[in-house]
Amino acid sequence: MRKFKKIMVVTAVFALLLTGCANSNNGNAGNAGDTSNPEAEVVETVEITDVHGKVTVPVNPKYVVALDNRTFETLADWGIELAAVPKGVMPADSPYVKDDSVQDIGNHREPNLEIIAAVDPELVIVGQRFATFYEDIKKIVPNAAVIDLNFDVSESAASPGENLVNGLKESTLALGQIFDKNKEAEELVAKFDAAIASTKSAYNGEDTIMSVVVSGGNIGFSAPKTGRVWGPMYEIFDWVPALTVDNASSDHQGDEVSVEAIAQSNPDWIFVLDRDAAVSSTTDAVPAQDVIDNSPALKNTTAVTKGQILYAPNDTYTNESIQTYLELFEKIAKALGN
Predict the structure, then answer these.
(1) Could you give the percent of the chain with pLDDT greater than 90?
(2) Partners of 146 in the beta sheet?
(3) 163 phi and psi angles, rounded to 5 deg
(4) Residues 253 and 223 sit within 8 Å (Cβ to Cβ)
(5) I need a surface site. Which of 222, 291, 292, 294 has the fewest CB within 10 A?
(6) CA angle 120, 99, 143 (to 5 degrees)
(7) Which pLDDT does position 31 carry in this prediction?
(8) 245 burial level (CB within 10 Å; 0-12, 13-18, 19+)
């Protein structure tokens, strides 16, 4: 009887040793998702819907590459660290541009996508200028979550105004889910909605609006619905355009409509985007206000004689974030309401 008990004890000890060895050999696998290990690290995820469908994204990813100009200010305000960004098409005062530890992949014309692969990100945020590289990026970082937050406000869009509003709100809420900033995202969207309502109520429904892009000392026409930055606002706020043209585009320097034609439309208001103010590499830049003020053709227009000229924030061309539009809408509401 004593001999049988002794054999049972030895067997039990041997079994425990085998179990300990098995746990030791598979320690890494256990940390990746072994729920039997009380110390296992469970990676929380969230399902995001982008323009391509549903994507599973880790919450609070550590290594993030952001390529969408509509997201940089939001991420910076939330204190999100980034591994790589396209510094060449970002505002010079962005904290990511100033941070040497954040790698630069270059601009969208000749990006160095290999830097993205070298960073080995958990998440890549694609959009706007880099939307065309979506498939390329997915191939070089197959283990990363890649989300495309782009939305269409080009000349081919049926409802650019609706796309702009919904796109900015949905991408903000998606980022809030990913980075555990749901409260901040909801507050930002609420302020955005309030700014839209204020701007709508401030407009009298009669004043004619002319929107332009100033670049290299030239004044380009920013067409209703399709023009850069301003175009979608005609739909959002039901503005009366001072001038319409056929086959207008969303060209970044505006459409080639003569200043004389713009002047002849005699707009009540002129809304101006200074493209060069946002591009630090521009050497022949002339401030948009100087161009407008010194234009002989425009000097007798209602907008100029009444001082009804409004300028978008200087960094708008490279910072089309929800914060930029919030600031711009509040500025427009205040001007129109006076």
Answers:
(1) 72
(2) 124
(3) -65, -40
(4) no
(5) 294
(6) 10
(7) 40
(8) middle
CB 75 within 8 A of CB 82: yes
322-337 vs 182-202: helix crossing angle, rounded to 10: 30
Task: Please state, in angstroms and rounded to a whole number, the distance separating the CA atoms of residues 135 and 214.
Answer: 34
Torsion of CA 83, 129, 181, 143, to 10 degrees: -50
The larger pLDDT score, comparing residue 30 to residue 287, is at 287
Q: How far is the C-alpha of 209 from the C-alpha of 240, rounded, in Å?
A: 6
Summarised one tens digit per residue, pLDDT across range 159-193 is 999 999 999 999 999 999 999 999 999 999 999 99
How far is 96 from 91, CA to CA, in rounded Å?
Answer: 9
> 80 and 139 in contact (C-beta within 8 Å)?
no
pLDDT of residue 287: 86
Q: Could you tell me the two tokens for 335?
A: 């001007």
Instruction: Name the amino acid, one letter, at 63.
Output: Y
Confidence band, pLDDT 50/70/90 cuts, at residue 244: confident
